[in-house]
Amino acid sequence: MAAEGRVLAPPLRPPSPGGGGAAVPGAVPEPLLAAEVLALDDEEDLEVFSKDTSLAEVNSFSSSVPISPSSMINQYKLEDEPELRDLFITVDDPESHITAIETFITYRVVTKTSRGEFDSSEYEVRRRYQDFLWLKSKLEEAHPTLIIPPLPEKFIMKGMVERFSDEFIETRRKALHKFLNRIADHPTLTFNEDFKIFLTAQAWELSSHKKQGPGLLSRMGQTVRAVASSVRGGGVKNRPEMFTEMNSYMEAFSQKINVLDKIAHRIYKEEREYFNEMKEYGPIHTLWSASEEDIAESLKGVASCIDKCCKATEKKMAGLSENLLPILHEYVLYSEILMFSEEIGKLEDKVECANNALKADWDRWKQNMQFDMRSTFTNVAENNLRYYEECLATWESFLASQRVELHMEEDSEDRP
């Protein structure tokens, strides 16, 4: 599908209140977040999402040649193709457990690997949310200067979905799957011993391991964190400029990503309301056709078009809930984590090696974030184009058929 295709609103849709929110994801024609989206508060903070990356560098092709979103994504994937992986993890098959004191969900974690430090090439274990929390805490202890991927919140926000509903469980499963694969793709975290135990140990073995005291790496991590806490708020002189820049970057990033997250949820809510109303609109035309013999076929045609647009809207909503919303929320959680990175900067030369590790991880995180944002918003734009073109084609086909019938009736009337 070419990007130059017309983007028209589907018929029968009421205007969005205020005319603002619902156009944001579909209005991003460029691979990076558009200025119109980011300039919600301060235009001077736009470099947050495009720092060190220019469109001229990314798109080194002629501007006269139209490029579709799919082509752009393919180009990025070719440029940013990761090295061959040797660790594959899947989180699936959620299972409910009800005991006398609690109800919880476990997930199957399947690991396939060709690494020599593993005794087998494939493992299958079951883990509950508390096990994921334990793993995250162990990674934070062992690697206090690295950026540990966020976990989904323990409790769902009120008013979103019911806890333990199918939607909640599936949303969490996807987040846990991404959490483990973020770790697996990290050049340092992937070789953490607790991570290996999490992937391979049976339930009783993991429980036994949890009861053991902290290892050497954990004690080192606690020492570094204790030093950071001791100088928190203190006026340490000559703090590295990198950490000041990092904190400023994250303040702006946090502001923008939180606004985008709220707008995306509002758009999804509006789409759901529109979808529910449209589901009722089609059957009305079908019932109407039963009492209007002269225009019965036309009314049935309208009902059919509405039904097709309804299905297209459902697919569009699925794209938002599966692609846009999880990515934005993941980076909302990242922004909360990284607002505390300034503590490491206060340690100065005492942990110069740790500072270098954080700097490298920071650069890696920014590259991943920029790629995720480019591909996510490009996918949203492409899905919007596909949606509007599908709705447009549906109604144009219906109108064409009506014109043909009208001409046939006129011809029959003109005949003697």
Automatic annotation (TrEMBL):
CDD domains: PX_SNX7
Residues covered by the PX domain: 85-206
A single Gene Ontology CC term: phagophore assembly site
UniProt GO BP: autophagy of mitochondrion; endocytic recycling; piecemeal microautophagy of the nucleus; protein transport; reticulophagy
GO molecular function, one term: phosphatidylinositol binding
Pfam families: PX (PF00787)
Chain positions covered by the region annotation Disordered: 1-25
Keywords linked to the UniProt accession: Protein transport, Transport
Gene3D superfamilies with a match to the protein in the record: Arfaptin homology (AH) domain/BAR domain (1.20.1270.60), Phox-like domain (3.30.1520.10)
Family: Belongs to the sorting nexin family.
Name used for this protein in its record: Sorting nexin 7
The species this protein was found in: Amazona collaria (yellow-billed parrot)
Organism classification: Eukaryota, Metazoa, Chordata, Craniata, Vertebrata
